[in-house]
Amino acid sequence: MIALWWAELSLMMKILWTVTLSASLVFVIQSILTFLGADADSDFSTDVDLSADGSDLSNIEGGSNLYTFRNFVNFVLGFGWSAILLQDSVPSVPLRLVISVLIGVALVAAVMYLFKWLSSMQQSGNIDLSRQAKGCEGTVYLTIPAARSGEGKVQITIAGAVREYAAITETEEPLKTGTAIRVVDVINASTLLVEAGDTYTV
């Protein structure tokens, strides 16, 4: 049955079906990778960036770039399925192609808008360490060497969640694992200056 249906298709429809089904398969794979926390987006003409950071929608800003492989797939998806589904209802080939192109462009625009919205949501949920971390309490996760001689790690409660950061201390004794601490200052986006909690005063 399928072989007979395929044999009856014109060359143009065979090509259209092949390209559309291929784009659909790629779209499904991209969707799975996105939900797994990987980014299947890439520059259309160059490399493919696959990362597995599940903590955020990895490299989500890539969806707002027009010339990406993801957007190419989305356009082919919208164009191909529109051309196939409109074959009977829109007999005029030029008109069907124009409508299919417009639907493909609309799908790309919708996905880009979705990625931009998700990116803004992600950014609005980011923590501003310089404002929020100072004074937060926590515990030493990995021993912090004394007198800024090296880094350890701490876990602090910030914005209602427990997070882990690199940390240094100015105390003359190392802060051992399990020691209660408070954040004195923020060194950079990933490193805190801390003191033992029972010696810190605001």
Structure description:
This protein is an alpha+beta fold. The chain folds into 2 domains: 2-124, no CATH class; 129-199, OB fold (Dihydrolipoamide Acetyltransferase, E2P) (Beta Barrel). The chain has helices at 2-8, 11-35, 69-85, 93-124, 129-132, and strands spanning 137-142, 152-158, 161-169, 180-186, 191-196. The protein has a 5-stranded mixed β-barrel. A hairpin with a 2-residue loop joins strand 2 and strand 3 (161-169). Helix 3 packs antiparallel against helix 4. The N and C termini lie far apart (79 Å).
Would you kindly provide a brief summary of this structure?
This protein is of the alpha+beta class and 202 residues long. Helices cover 42% and strands 17% of the residues.
N-to-C series of helices and strands: HHHHHEEEEE
* Biggest sheet statistics: 5 strands, mixed, barrel
Order of strands, widest sheet: 1-2-3-5-4
Q: In total, how many domains does the architecture comprise?
A: 2
Q: What general outline do the C-alpha atoms trace?
A: rod-shaped
**DSSP strand tally:** 5
Based on the model shown, name its key terms:
202 residues; OB fold (Dihydrolipoamide Acetyltransferase, E2P); alpha+beta; 5-stranded mixed barrel; rod-shaped; 17% strand
